[in-house]
Write a structure and sequence with these properties.
With 343 residues, the chain is α/β, with parallel strands linked by helices. 43% of the residues lie in helices and 16% in strands. The protein contains 13 helices and 12 strands. Strand 8, helix 11 (248-260) and strand 9 form a beta-alpha-beta unit.
Length: 343
């Protein structure tokens, strides 16, 4: 039998309104009363009807999260952060996969699920500013990633140029002088452009050549793309002493090719990835990587949606999440990394 608010109120000897105030975490309930009601809730096993609670507010209790690549470990870890934060606020997350296709991103952003969601968190790849400028749907929208849109929506991202410069600066500090970049996108990709820009700026600042012959463009950003990009550089007769990859899967693919060519990581070629996904921590050579604060990105995204729903949000803003470089064996070597900054 389902336990009701009335049952809890009778057990605690208080009014139904008092129980409701405790369940809804209203601040004006005294600590003693909150503890008294909570003891009755625990004793009876009461569970709030979240669907009914949201419906009373004219909401569904659902936030949509639209991602370009569900197979990419970074997006899987980001989704977990969003889901965990949403659960803390009694929301569930509806996951959408856009494949990074503009038509699908337009469909999602224009609200084809508007009747079943309270807000949308979208990580776009190909969406253009004009696609969002005339958006008629009033469901709150929060954008993730590095595409810049001069539009009135909250936007959460890391500083990709600074992050790329941190990665290249680390390699230069280790004495590397020919740093390749793999993962420039053949089509438009603002994140790739920003990371190439950071690569170029840091090399130039150090008085080193930013050799375009060491930049390998790809159609995708998976393990195979990294392997193919690394192969093209080596087959062209180039032997960089370091590689900075667009993301961790590409870096792992590149390290496989280096192994097949008889080149040692990091003795012959040091490698840095981006995103700090879990598989990079368990290879034969653990991967140095730029680590965005994925938990903070997920938390900020959910909180931005809920702030919009609550009507107390500030003007739309671009929020910068933190990042750090995690040094491991692919640049520092096994002995040095063992006492280093791995997590």
């Amino acid at each position: 039998m389902r336990v009701s608010l009335k049952d809890v109120a009778a057990h605690a000897g208080v009014s139904i309104k008092t129980v409701s105030n405790v369940v809804n975490n209203y601040q004006h309930v005294t600590p003693a009363m909150r503890e008294r009601v909570q003891q009755s809730i625990d004793a009876l096993g009461y569970r709030p009807n979240l669907a009914a609670r949201h419906l009373r507010k004219g909401r569904t209790g659902i936030i949509a999260l639209a991602l370009p690549e569900l197979g990419n470990p970074y997006f899987a870890e980001l989704a977990a952060a969003v889901i965990d934060t949403a659960a803390e606020h009694d929301y569930i997350v509806l996951l959408d996969h856009t494949g990074g296709r503009r038509e699908q991103e337009i469909l999602v952003s224009q609200g084809f699920r508007a009747r079943v969601i309270d807000g949308l968190i979208l990580s776009p790849i190909e969406l253009e500013t004009g696609d969002l400028r005339d958006r008629a749907e009033n469901v709150p929208l929060v954008l993730l990633g590095e595409r810049e849109y001069d539009l009135p929506y909250d936007h959460i991202a890391i500083d990709n140029v600074a992050a790329a410069r941190d990665a290249v600066r680390h390699l230069i500090a280790l004495g590397r002088r020919e740093v390749a970049f793999i993962g420039d996108r053949r089509g438009r990709s603002e994140p790739a452009q920003l990371r190439v820009r950071g690569w170029r700026e840091e090399l130039t600042a150090a008085g080193l050549p930013a050799d375009d012959g060491l930049v390998a463009a790809t159609d995708g950003w998976g393990h195979a793309d990294g392997a193919q990009a690394m192969t093209r550089i080596l087959e062209a007769g180039r032997r960089p002493d370091a590689v900075f990859a667009y993301n961790d899967p590409m870096a792992i693919g590149a390290m496989r090719v280096l192994h097949e060519w008889g080149l040692r990581v990091p003795e012959d070629i040091a490698v840095v990835g981006f995103d700090d996904v879990i598989e990079g921590r368990f290879g034969a050579v653990t991967l140095t990587s730029v680590s965005p604060d994925k938990e903070a990105i997920g938390r900020l995204a959910v909180e931005s949606v809920l702030a919009r729903l609550g009507g107390g949000a500030p003007e739309p803003r671009c929020i910068r999440a933190e990042h750090r470089l995690v040094e491991r064996e692919s640049t520092r070597g096994r002995r040095a990394a063992a006492g280093g900054t791995d997590s």
